[in-house]
Amino acid sequence: MVVPMYNTKGKKVGEVELRPAIFEAPVNVSLMHQAFVRQMANARLGTHKAKSRGENNRTTAKFYRQKGTGRARHGSRNANLFVGGGIAHGPLPRTYTKKMPRKMRRAALRSALSAKVAGDQIVVVDELAMDAPRTKEIVKVLANLGLDANKTSGRVLILLPDRNELVEKSTRNLPWVKTLRAGYLNVRDLLGYDHVLMSKGALEVIESILE
């Protein structure tokens, strides 16, 4: 598949060929869903903890007499039926980590990229470079490429070949734009953004990982 390549002014400067094995792969929705669920689960800390009656620090004195009150027998305020007592069967620290074979993870990325290409949601530029971090300049670049990012027209994911502090700082004040290094490409970000803007260098990084 051949797609046009633009410069930051929005002018076509050439064409670039997308590898069919990566950008024309079968779109497997269930596989993408599995990769998404795995990624969200692995992001959970699992540090939740509730104290049981044995861990609750309250008085252990018998708080009313055993007989003669007409009430049930109780010897501790730590019981779970009292306010401030322990929690019965409460959450404990655990890991939510899910495993997924590398071949399946990469196949999910190919499916997501193929879906974006099929929906005409990928834009390739020759180079994305700036002289200084300026939000106004990156907004102008996006507008030139027809990617005026906002809540109504769509969210934009910018893929960079490596670290680029100028571009990253320029997009920091734009809530509907995210910069990501191509080596960290993931299903959640691909599915969570309406448009993907990548430089030719970022495309080469993706192809080297997924080929």
> How many E-type strands?
6
Number of helices: 7
Oligomer: single chain
Q: What is the overall silhouette?
A: elongated
Major sheet: 6 strands, mixed
CATH class of the largest domain: Alpha Beta
User: Any idea how many domains?
Assistant: 2
Q: How far apart, in Å, are the first and last alpha carbons?
A: 15 Å
Identify low-pLDDT runs: none
Average pLDDT rating: 92
CATH topology group of the largest domain:
Ribosomal Protein L4, Chain: A
Secondary-structure element order, N to C: EEHHHEHEHEHEH
CATH architecture of the largest domain: 3-Layer(aba) Sandwich
Portion in beta strands: 5-15%
Query: Which structural category fits the helices and strands?
Result: alpha/beta
Helix content: 25-40%
Protein model, in words:
With 211 residues, the chain is an alpha/beta fold. It is 32% helix and 14% strand. It is built from seven helices and six strands. The protein is elongated.
Summarize the structure.
The chain has seven helices and six strands; from the N terminus they run E-E-H-H-H-E-H-E-H-E-H-E-H. By secondary structure, it is an alpha/beta fold. The mean pLDDT is 92.
List the helices and strands and how they pair.
Elements: E1 2-6, E2 12-17, H1 20-23, H2 29-42, H3 102-118, E3 122-125, H4 135-144, E4 156-160, H5 165-170, E5 177-181, H6 187-192, E6 195-199, H7 200-210
Parallel strand pairs: 1-3, 3-6, 4-5, 4-6
Antiparallel strand pairs: 1-2
Helix pairs in contact: 2-3
